[in-house]
């Protein structure tokens, strides 16, 4: 419980410090993303989803919103919907390493080894570490 309080305080302080930067819309998106990440950490997926929905209304082209929504959907075993979210994140930022990693996990769950390898190798090329076990049979 003490750790949760500490994390909440850290997120709150970061939000305050960053509130003086950027436009009001950017500030709101940033605050909502921080809130969503904190809620995901605390396993409040519904609360995180609500924050991400608000983010998406403010900025429909923010790849992190789609990435985080994809993570929530993957956790809920809604693989097709999660795939759509990771695809959108990658469409918006084709250098989004973590989106390739998580889409690779989805391809593993769906049994498509070729696409799994393609995404994991792309993530490695973008700098992802610790994917040896996932890629050792891809080469």
User: Strand-and-helix sequence, N→C?
Assistant: HHHHHHHH
Strand content: under 5%
Total beta-strand segments: 0
Number of helices: 8
Report the average pLDDT across residues. Answer: 89
Low-confidence stretches: none
Cα end-to-end separation: 45 Å
Which of globular, elongated, flat, extended, rod-shaped describes the shape? globular
Share of residues in helices:
over 70%
- Content-based structural category: mainly alpha
Any overview of this molecule?
The chain has 139 residues and is mostly helical. Helices cover 77% and strands 0% of the residues. The protein has 8 helices and no strands. The chain has helices at 2-18, 24-41, 45-58, 63-75, 79-92, 97-110, 113-125, 132-135. The relative contact order is 0.08.
Brief synopsis:
It is built from eight helices and no strands. The protein has 139 residues and is mostly helical.
What order do the helices and strands come in, and which of them pair?
Elements: H1 2-18, H2 24-41, H3 45-58, H4 63-75, H5 79-92, H6 97-110, H7 113-125, H8 132-135
What tags apply to this protein structure?
single chain; mainly alpha; 139 residues; 8 helices
